[in-house]
Amino acid sequence: MDYDYIKLANKLKNLKLSPPTKEFIEHILMKKFKAVEIPLYSIHPDDYKNDDEVDESKIYKLFTITNPDILNKICNNEEKEIFEDERNDKIEIDVPRDEITNNNLIMNIIKVIGYL
After folding, report:
1. CA pair distance 107, 113, nearest whole angstrom
2. 32 CB neighbour count, 10 Å cutoff
3. Distance set, CA 51 to CA 68, 78, 103, 106 (Å)
4. N or C: which end of the chain has fewer CB within 10 A?
5. Assign residue 28 a region: left if phi > 0, alpha if psi is -120 to 50, beta otherwise?
6. Which long-range contacts (CB under 8 A, 24 or more apart) does 24-33 make?
7. Are 43 and 101 in contact (CB under 8 A)?
8. Contact 71, 65 (CB under 8 A)
9. Are 113 and 54 in contact (CB under 8 A)?
10. How many CB atoms lie within 10 A of CB 43?
11. Could you tell me if 59 and 92 are in contact, meaning their C-beta atoms sit under 8 angstroms apart?
């Protein structure tokens, strides 16, 4: 089914709904997507600074989704292929100790477990 996303966006804008609260979004993440809150220090501050799409000042909580059934539903085929390629990549590289961050460790643990 093809959607006219511009038309849908305009229709939604015209409804003049109040924006959802943080609590509502958190509830949806935890209930619908089985997201789990992780500590803020899980991602090194430098990782935020190196990401043009992230405004570090607005981050107050972190969530992760690791449930394979949920991930299969929300990831498109291209994303699934990327994750599969990463899992199948047997190349070992030496990472300098000073480049190891909590974020890298968490991502590597998730990859080893097979959720990504």
Report:
1. 10
2. 10
3. 26, 21, 13, 18
4. N
5. alpha
6. 26/61, 26/63, 29/63, 29/65, 30/63, 33/65, 33/67, 33/70, 33/74
7. yes
8. yes
9. no
10. 21
11. no
Residue 14 structure tokens: 């015209």
Query: For residue range 62-77, what is the model confidence (pLDDT) as tens digits?
Result: 999 888 888 888 888 8
pLDDT 10s digits, 9-55: 888 888 888 888 999 999 999 999 999 999 988 888 888 888 888 88
The one-letter amino acid at 101: T
